[in-house]
Amino acid sequence: MNVDVRDYGASGEGGKLDTASIQAAIDSVAAAGGGMVVVSPGQYRVGTVFLLDNVRLHLDAGAVLVGSTDADDYTHRDFDGAGTEVQHDLWHLLVADGCRDIALTGQGRIDGSGPSFYFPPERELAWPRPFPENGRMRTMVEFHRCRGVVVEDVTLGNVSNWTLHLHESDDVVVRGIRIENPPTAPNADGIDITGCRNVRINGCRIDTCDDAICLKTNPRGRTCEDITVDGCVIRTHCVALKVGSSETYQDVRNVAFSNCVVRGSSRAIGLYSHQGCIVENISASNIVCDTCVPLMFTRPIHLECYNHERASGPSTMRNILIAGLLAETNGRCMVTAQPGCDLSDITLRDVQLRYPVLDDPAPRAAEAPCGQFSKGNPRARVERAALVAEGVRDLTVEGFLCKWPAGDTPDRWLFEKKMANGCHDLFEPADWTLAADCPFAAVCARNVNGGYIRGPVPDGFQGGEALRMDECNWAVIT
Hints:
Elements: E1 2-4, E2 13-17, H1 19-31, E3 35-39, E4 42-46, E5 49-50, E6 55-59, E7 63-67, E8 77-79, E9 87-90, E10 94-97, E11 100-106, E12 109-111, E13 118-119, E14 129-130, E15 139-144, E16 147-152, E17 155-157, E18 162-167, E19 170-175, E20 178-180, E21 191-194, E22 197-202, E23 205-208, E24 213-217, E25 224-230, E26 233-236, E27 239-248, E28 252-263, E29 267-273, E30 278-290, E31 301-305, E32 316-328, E33 333-337, E34 342-354, H2 378-382, E35 385-403, E36 418-419, E37 426-427, E38 441-454, E39 467-470, E40 473-477
Parallel strand pairs: 1-3, 2-4, 3-6, 4-7, 5-10, 6-11, 7-12, 10-15, 11-16, 12-17, 15-18, 16-19, 17-20, 18-21, 19-22, 20-23, 21-24, 22-25, 23-26, 24-27, 25-28, 26-28, 27-29, 28-30, 29-31, 30-32, 31-33, 32-34, 33-35, 34-35, 35-38, 38-39, 38-40
Antiparallel strand pairs: 8-9, 13-14, 36-37
């Protein structure tokens, strides 16, 4: 059964609220056993719309679902399972709750009317300030405990919170979508994958402020397993390809990131175990990235085990392969574990760093407030080295190359001011500029036991050491 929402009274003129008409079309198709609901060209102002079993919502080119700017037009709900407590008064634009065999497709667009739900920036480089949680949309498009989901070709954006959330859902395909969010949007993650299994993300283009693709698990939730991300082009000020951090309570395993281009990201690859879970069997291959963004302490690669105060036990990360990463950067690769955590069986292969300019972490990194910056390894935070490894067991490094700065710094890497994740401070060039006579090592290893680094190890910068080791049992193969 195929129907057009206009046949159910939707105007598509932007003024009238079309929620009831679109919902009626979905209800009718679901009652008939399934089919396609077509949103023909036009602008449809809506509150919360619910997908149902066996329904494909198809947005034709020129069709736009625009979120109402009135919170009362949305269906508010409580949610038990996302965190340590029940979350109240959540609302979304499009929701699928416990559905089977559903799809969101087409060349149309869903617009969350984001600026209606957060404060305008106080100044350039100001950290985004959202309305209180019950005063803004939670996730614009939410798939909760669904099976057999396809999201294809649509454009999603202009959000005031997360864009697309896959929560404890199985057998999901996200293919060819675009996510377009303004850089001022608070918490504007692109795709969040929480406690899901068998998810494939292919050929997407994501331009957003916060994490682009992020895997998570909840305190009362499921593990996250069998996830692939391939062929995506990403621009984000935060982490492009991310596992974990503050929302990794259950294990995450069997994840492959591949063939992605990342622009303007403070961290291209960020893998974190902070809550006592196991993060294992993760591969990232053929990644091209740059960290050209007005943010302090950029890290093309960051692997970290840290025990948050709410951790259920020692955090663990193991069996990680990063192979074929080409980065234009001003920052460092960091692989660190707080004492008492287990970071093991880590391989970095064919990692090439090209430095148009080199930032100095020593002046301000010790005080950086970000919770995703090796808090359990204070010496590593300020270490002057292109690759900093601390507290790792069985670390293999092969084909690690650095091309140090030479000549004038390109204009696009010159910033008058920067900000840092987790704070509202502005930083001046003196906070990050490396002195002309300051040595910078290629590799610094501390408390690394097992594995090897296979040379030749590149020379350091400005007389810095090629390899500096402290309390290591780490083989050097030349």
